[in-house]
Amino acid sequence: MSETSRQSTLSKPIGSGTKSSPASVGRRLWPYIKPLIWVAIAAILTLAIVAATEAGLPALLKPLLDHGFGTKGSPSATWIVPAAVIGLALVRGLTQYASGYLLQYMTNKILLELRLKMFERMIHASVGFFQRETASTVINAIVFEVNQILGVLLSVLVTSVRDSLTVIFLLGYLFILNWRLTLIVAVLLPAIGWLVSKINRRLRRLNREHQALTNELSYIVEETVGGYKVVKVHNGEQYEMDRFGEMSKRLRGYQMRMTISGGLAQPITQFLASIALAIVITIAVVQASHDQTTVGGFVAFVTSMLLVISPLKHLIDVNQPLQRGMTAAELIFGLIDEPAEPAGGGKPLERARGEIEFRNVSFSYGPGARSILESVTFSAAPGEMIALAGPSGSGKTTLVNLLPRFFDPSAGEILVDGVPLPEYDIHALRSQIAMVSQDVTLFNDTVANNVAYGETADPARVEDALRAANLWDTIAALPEGIATLVGDNGMKLSGGQRQRLAIARAIYKDAPILILDEATSALDSESERHVQAALETLMEGRTTLVIAHRLSTIERADRILVMEAGRIAERGSHQQLLEQRGLYAHLHKIQFQQNAA
User: What is the maximum span of the chain, computed from C-alpha positions, in angstroms?
Assistant: First the structure.
């Protein structure tokens, strides 16, 4: 993949091509909600009870005002109504607590399932996914954005059930009290619906752009943390501050535009409600003068009307987090929908002989892209050492990456023990391959778990692997031995020690096929001597593909393949290639002169 095309894909968050709606998100979430359906029903019922208690308060005010005050006050109204108020508060408090607990239980279970599903899909994604997406985007999706969608699920459920039912109960009671006045209130609802539909579209677009900028901001932080040495040695602090500050300002601008758009709904709603209230008061006064309503009825009506405004505002306010949730859903389900890498044909492979064959293999990163490999053909017998040499960009690393099926060839086929790779189960195939590269990856775990990565650590086998890698004395001298934590990517170890720990990992795996990708290129002479000795032990009896920057390390290879522009330009032993006086001899001469200097 070219740098230009890679950078263009980095700026696109996962799922940027998908558009979500509440209905589509609901359908996607249903498989996660279904096992918890009875918890959801119980939560909805408790929310319905909470909503019903809202209409209970104004219903109690009417008899209290009409029969509890004055000389003709009813003794029953004097005591029953206060007792009913306390009862309503108790019921409301208990059901609110129950609904909160049930909803949190449900959403946290769904959160766990979504996170596990996202991480599983990320782990099984193709290598192309990891080249396309930045770590910050994936972390943002799995750790933070999933909270957004669960927060939306919770708020939408609470609002749509509790506040919608509250509005329905209160409107029903208003209609019973005075249907003429209720019609005035009902006029508000279509006006509010129209207002929300106008604001929705702008909020959705702003949220999508805000999400893309958040990912870019995270990537700046990721780059700065990862390249802190370059930043410091080149005095790049101000440059990074300017870059971060500019992106932060753009993000703030979008946040303010979202606030302006989302904040318009509430004051306009309140203004419409105030107009309706003024009209209601005017008509109620006229009705009272003609004995068409009582003081209790009027107070109960106005109280109910005022109580309607709060849940209506909640229904309006849920729009902004709902739009944020839709944007988060695009990221989350975009990751969940990421295609998994091919599982292979399912053919088992207990222990490979180590026979490898490339037949007219070509490779490019996509239709129309430049060919990285063109018609590469060679074979390696079991236990044979094949070295790959050639200038940078000639396709050496791409070639060895095809063997464990990090990518599949665009044309031709690769065989192990005479069987094409796609016929093997991919995990069975990879269990036959060990890889040591110049970019060592260690995990913030113990030495033992790093050596036995992917398996349960056997202390005796770990010790044997470390001895074979010339690292046992160093590890044994540590206070906690093989139980020592190596730190972030092995930061507690030197470069040579990290390289030898990676070799120990390959020795522990005991795979019949070995790939060495410039495993000594970044080491000093002393470290290289120790690592080279460890590699000699590792390569014994294994079919080995070696990419070497230093040609002196591959002189004893059974065959050397010299690559140029994706093709095998020369092949033969070290001596044969020198005698040909071609590309290999030219590269060898340059290195010899550099070493002599």
Answer: 124
152, 192, 227, 317 from 197: Cα distances, Å:
18, 9, 46, 13
**What is the reported pTM?**
0.70
| CA angle, residues 118, 157, 330, in degrees to nearest 5 | 35
Six-digit token string for 441: 């990856």
CA distance 111 to 151: 10
Tell me the CA distances in angstroms from 416 to 126, 341, 354, 445, one per residue in order.
21, 19, 7, 33
167-204 tens-digit pLDDT: 787 777 777 777 776 776 666 666 665 666 666 667 66
* Closest to 354 in 3D by CA, of 381, 378, 377, 379: 381
The DSSP bridge partners found for residue 425 are 344
559 with 386: CB under 8 angstroms?
yes
What architecture (CATH level 2) is domain 3-336? Up-down Bundle (1.20)
CA angle 407, 408, 411 (to 5 degrees): 140
Strand 513-517, strand 543-547: pairing: parallel
569 vs 342: CA distance, rounded Å: 32
Domain boundaries, the chain: 3-336, 343-432+557-597
Q: How many CB atoms lie within 10 A of CB 516?
A: 27
Rg over alpha carbons for the chain, rounded to the nearest Å, is: 35
With contact defined as beta carbons under 8 Å apart, do 588 and 578 qualify? Answer: yes
Task: For residue 170, give both structure tokens.
Answer: 């209160």
Strands 371-380, 385-389: parallel, antiparallel or unpaired by DSSP? Answer: unpaired
> What phi-psi label fits residue 577: left (phi over 0), alpha (psi between -120 and 50 degrees) or beta?
alpha
Output the six-digit token pair for 453: 């990565």
C-alpha closest to that of 468 among 538, 383, 546? 538
Among 594, 597, 595, 554, CA closest to 578: 554
Strands, DSSP E only, in 312-456?
356-364, 371-380, 385-389, 411-416, 419-420, 433-437
Beta-sheet strand order (sheet of 419-420): 371-380, 356-364, 411-416, 419-420
Strand partners, 364: 371
Phi and psi of 112, rounded to 5°? -60, -45
Number of CB atoms found within 10 A of residue 583's CB: 18
Q: How many CA atoms lie within 13 A of 378 on its CB side?
A: 24
Predicted confidence (pLDDT) per residue in 552-593, tens digit:
778 888 999 999 989 999 999 888 888 888 888 888 788 766
What CATH class has 343-432+557-597? alpha beta
**Per residue, what are the HEC states of 532-557?**
HHHHHHHHCCCEEEEECCCHHHHCCC
Task: Report residue 551: phi and psi, to 5°.
Answer: -65, -20
Spatial separation of the C-alpha atoms in residues 300 and 321, rounded to whole Å:
33
